[in-house]
Amino acid sequence: MTQSARKSVDEMAAEWVARMDTGIWSNADDEQLGKWLREDEQHEGALVHAQALWTVIALDRSELQDEPRGSARRFDRRKFLLGTGGALAASVVGSLYLFNSDMGYATDVGETRRVALTDGSIAAINTDSKLDVKIVENERRIKIEKGEAWFQVTKDPQRPFIVEAGEVRVRAVGTAFSVRRRGDGAEILVSEGVVEAWAVGTRTKSVRLPAGSKIRIRNNGSVDGRSSEEQVIERALAWRSGKIDLAGTRVDAAIAEMNRYNRRQIVLGDPILAAERIDGVFQTNDPEGFARVIAGSFSRSVDIANSNEIRILPH
């Protein structure tokens, strides 16, 4: 590959990583990224290297800028990534790549991230989540300490992709699915391919889940739900593009879902509304707008005087 072609690949990888980091992502983006990765096996490595350097810059940009933390000047990581080229990029990425097979990722409340794993898989990490990733010669293992993540798994029959969430295990080779850790187990949604899931000690009772499956496996091995419609799965995964998509959801459950993404919490001051239903697509970073829609739908008002909460008032 010529130097100019190499530069083009690196630039495209940087663009993809920058787009992942914005939190604004769609199904079309997933399809386009997958197509780009399949075009050339070198694209996968370029994406992983770009993600590695992006992460380093994020962790220690004050040193790279030679500016104090909290500086008001906006730092453009993409330009820095493209501008480093040569020695710095090679040394930073090269050293990081050696230990990138065993890494941890975390998101803050309201933050979502997409990261490229060293095997070429993509992980979209939801709000307030923590993952440990270990990729070795014979397996790829992800432990969800808390929260939720969606995985677009690169096919590799020699290295099964295993996700741990409490006592629940999910195994895949090449597919796309999400796992959300719950207090008593985990919720699993399969958007493409097939996965196998079970609870520790109940492997003989594992369930095989095709695309369209939406289930909850408890730590004791009991299973709720099996299949769903494709549109239901896509609604549940709307968080990947910074939204929540509700269809006939109870008001109390809808508020709990929105509260996952915001430190300023919505409080339902009228318990009569708890069992009412609501539909709509909402931005996860707009709790006030969400609360006003609920209040307006049932002729209620909203109190926003408290900076820590938004209260939906009774009549």
TrEMBL record:
Residues passing through the membrane, by range: 80-99
The organism's place on the tree of life at top rank: Bacteria
FecR protein domain sequence ranges: 105-196
GO molecular function per UniProt: sigma factor antagonist activity
Xref: PANTHER family: PERIPLASMIC SIGNAL SENSOR AND SIGMA FACTOR ACTIVATOR FECR-RELATED, PROTEIN FECR
Keyword check for Membrane: yes
Record keyword Transit peptide present: no
InterPro entries: FecR, FecR_N, Ferrdict_sens_TM
Domain FecR N-terminal positions: 13-53
Keywords: Membrane, Transmembrane, Transmembrane helix
Protein name, entry field: Anti-FecI sigma factor FecR
